[in-house]
Amino acid sequence: MKYLLIFFLNLLPQYAGKSLRRGDSYPRTFEDIKNEIAGYTDTAKAIIDLAVHGKAQNRSYERLAVFADTIGPRLSGSKNLDAAIKYMFSALQEDGLENVHLEPVKVPHWERGEEFAMMLEPRKHSIAILGLGSSIATPPEGVMAEVIVVSSFDELHKRAHEAKGKIVVYNEPFITYGKTVQYRSQGAVEAAKVGAVASLIRSIASFSIQSPHTGWQDYQPDVPRIPTACISVEDAEMMSRMSLRGTKIVVHLKMGAKTYPDSPSFNTVAEIVGSKYPEQIVLVSGHLDSWDVGQGAMDDGGGAFISWEALSLIKDLGLRPKRTLRLVLWTAEEQGGIGAEQYYQLHKENISNFDIVMESDEGTFKPSGLGFTGNAKARDIVKEVMTLLQPINVTDVYDNADGTDIDYWMRNGVPEPPLELQLRMLLAVVGLDGRLSAWGQFDPIYLQ
Fold this sequence. Notes:
Strand content: 25-35%
Distance between the termini: 39 Å
Largest sheet: 8 strands, mixed
Radius of gyration: 24 Å
């Protein structure tokens, strides 16, 4: 079975009700809107039935499995990412979607190379590490230095006099990903400011089985660059205990990372063109790139493929949305949303045509609702829309929506006033049995 994220907008051209867009004479009471939403009950049921019980059952999961097994990891700048983009370009064409095309992007090209870390004192112990994206390499002979363990940036700054010439190990407690990830992104810079020769960061995770997590990190132009990597929660905790006992810790670190000139890549785009307002866009998305140490099935193969499935289901039912439903599979999200930024710069002059921008990149788990950003009146409307999903018990509306790839749209607002919400839209998050997430994202509907 699978999870699907299904978004559809103004699907039934034969529907008799009038549009709720500005300038129409249709009365805009909440009761009117509820009645209009209720008019889509049969359409919602048709989509749910196709996805859960019909020929589309398991389709997005099976598509993802073939893709991940065939292509593998898809690091920015890699041949595998090039192969993934070509694969998806062909697959979207074969699916019968419209205006399938590629939009060029320049993306970072970093490779981790060989990596090695060994604790030498107080005993020999092999430390599992994963270099962080954009990290520099160590010298060929590596870096051998004493360790200073800290639990926060504040502690590091208070002990700055102890850090010069040492390897800083961060054993920061996990609070939430959003709050804790600053140690990964800024840890090397803060350590370099106090004279450290390298930094090792406890993986940003609530659970560990001696498994370091990679991710992107950022240098600052006026701060020396030092090598940096993540280590497992277990090793960070062990070194913290040793340090608290006053035990001297010495680590030998070797990293062979290389940064190459930016490489050509592409955002992958497909559409179902709107029947009445083709210039108006409802955008659904996920990112196609991944890190290099896994298949990228969770991050973000699932989000990309359920976004594709949204268009497939609508096409299979012969529905034609009034507004254009556009799928974008971003490139180089893991490097800071590079593909999405360049897409935004290319299309921002037409921002008034983007009614809704959505992203699925919150992990692939059992769906329970959607994340939403908008005002109170718009939230009431969205809650009413979600009642259409009562048959599969996916009705929650969570505060706030975010996502790296839609951040630019969120900051600048996706216009179209909300009670207009282009309300022949239905958002259905359909799922069974925990494979792919349909949590999000109905992301920035900035409804003023």
